[in-house]
Design brief:
The protein is an alpha+beta fold. It has nine helices and 20 strands.
């Protein structure tokens, strides 16, 4: 346990500041993890970490420059050297293109967790697995009986962020982030299946249900079917949809679109805002207060980039629709890029939900399988890479289970494929949308964890070549 409270480091850095403006972020992080292999726990551990970021701003005749310096495990005695380093970096820097007045006029208030700015950070511990670990042990026993081998890991992290500025902001956010990934393999290691879940506290992780999914998929894989590359009607589960929609969202910067650099660009400096991307009533949205997916309700920017600005730290975040009823309605902007493009101010939010208007009528994935005449069912996608930003063409691989569905039943496991698809183009080819549920993006879950997606049916999903990936 650190003797100096994080908020004291923030206040000390602000006291020592000698430049025109200063933003300080203290992130206090604790994490717990479990790992297992071949039906037995292998390691577990708990770590603690602290990171202090100082952003100094200097006003000059040509504009305002910024210097950003961050260090781990900073003590009270080391704060001054960190502040001076940030100030030196600011004075040496060119004027910042994204310079804006520091956010002010926000009253300090308890975080959503109920804790105030001067209170101790929230921490996780190995106790977060108190219910999960015994359930996992029971899954090991079932797997041994069934001739399966279970591999995987579970992690839980709690980060408390303290934001203080020379303009008077004192804000705090407590963010839990958890995930579990389980691989089930046959005893000869000839087949495997994957299941994962994201969670805030592991109390909602249903291990028997995850293991049942894996057992079912291994059973499907007892029959092998070789198929050539081509375009197939394909059912994508929530995890695969999440990986595609997260990348779409990351690529939706307003400035890049206005400058003609992305799939959301139109000629002449216009964007595709107002254009229908799909005829289905699909909405892609974000909300810092979304139940189960709560995210920071204000901007926490440790550096500036295409979709973030250190000058926006503390800016309030509110519920935002990115796509509404199939129509593109917003792109990601900072205050600077909003001013530059004339687009509304819509900063990024750290969660994402895709849904149809009537969730009560939306089918489950099993129901979608039951009404499939012939098509493929994916498990997940991985090794996703961008091929062409102008169309947002992505390539990647299927992994841990692609299955053939005929006459409403899964009849066997198919070889893996390399795919080539644009998530924007794919939106226009979705023919059926299922019920939205929280899920874990397999490829991007380490970077973007708070997601709820539906399974979807897509016509002509492009399996561009056969892959040897298992």
């Amino acid at each position: 346990m650190n003797a100096i409270a994080p908020h004291e480091l923030v206040e000390r850095a602000l006291e020592l500041s000698r430049t025109d403006g200063c933003v300080v972020i203290a992130d206090e992080t604790s994490s717990a993890n479990l790992r297992w292999a071949a039906n037995a726990l292998t390691t577990n551990g708990v770590t603690r970490g602290r990171r202090l970021t100082v952003i100094a701003t200097v006003e000059g005749p040509d504009g305002t420059s910024a210097g950003v310096v961050a260090r781990e495990a900073v003590t009270l005695d080391e704060v001054e050297s960190l502040v001076r380093a940030a100030e030196e970096a600011a004075r040496a820097a060119e004027p910042a293109e994204d310079a804006q007045p520091l956010v002010a006029d926000r009253p300090s208030a308890p975080a959503a967790s109920g804790y105030g700015f001067t209170e101790a950070p929230v921490e996780t511990s190995i106790e977060v697995f108190a219910e999960f670990a015994p359930a996992l042990g029971e899954a090991f026993a079932r797997a041994r009986t069934a001739g399966q081998l279970l591999y995987g890991f579970a992690s839980h992290e709690f980060t408390t962020s303290y934001l203080g500025t020379s303009s008077g902001l004192r804000l705090r956010h407590d963010q839990p982030t958890g995930s579990v990934e389980i691989n089930a393999k046959t005893a000869d290691l000839g087949a495997s299946a994957w299941a994962g879940a994201a969670t805030r506290d592991f109390r909602d992780v249903n291990v028997p249900e995850l293991h049942e999914q894996l057992t079912q998929r291994l059973a499907w894989g007892q029959k092998k079917v070789d198929l050539p590359a081509g375009r197939y009607e394909t059912l994508l589960p929530p995890s695969a949809v999440a990986d595609l929609m997260v990348y779409l969202h990351w690529s939706s910067g307003g400035r890049d679109a206005a400058e003609g650099q992305t799939v959301f660009s139109k000629t002449g400096g216009a964007t595709r805002i107002g254009e229908k991307l799909t005829e289905l009533p699909l909405t892609l949205r974000a909300d810092p207060a979304e139940p189960g997916l709560q995210a920071p309700p204000f901007v926490l920017a440790h550096s500036s980039g295409d979709s973030a600005s250190v000058f926006d730290n503390g800016l309030p975040l509110t519920a935002t629709d990115w796509i509404r009823d199939g129509e593109l309605v917003n792109l990601i902007t900072t205050r600077h890029s909003a001013d530059l493009t004339g687009l509304p101010l819509t900063p990024p939010i750290d969660n994402l939900v895709l849904e149809t208007a009537d969730q009560s009528a939306a089918p489950t994935l099993d129901e979608m399988i039951a009404r499939t005449e012939r098509g493929l069912l994916l498990t997940c996608l991985w090794y996703i890479r961008e091929v062409d930003p102008a169309t947002l063409l992505l390539t990647g691989l299927t992994r841990d289970g692609v299955y053939l569905v005929e006459n409403g039943e899964v009849v066997g496991a198919v070889n893996n494929f390399r795919f080539n698809e644009s998530p924007v183009d794919l939106l226009g080819r979705i023919t059926e949308v299922g019920r939205t549920e929280p899920c874990l993006p397999r490829e991007w879950g380490d970077y973007f964890n708070r997601v709820a997606m539906p399974p979807v049916r897509v016509s002509g999903f492009n399996m561009s070549s056969v892959s040897q990936a298992s």
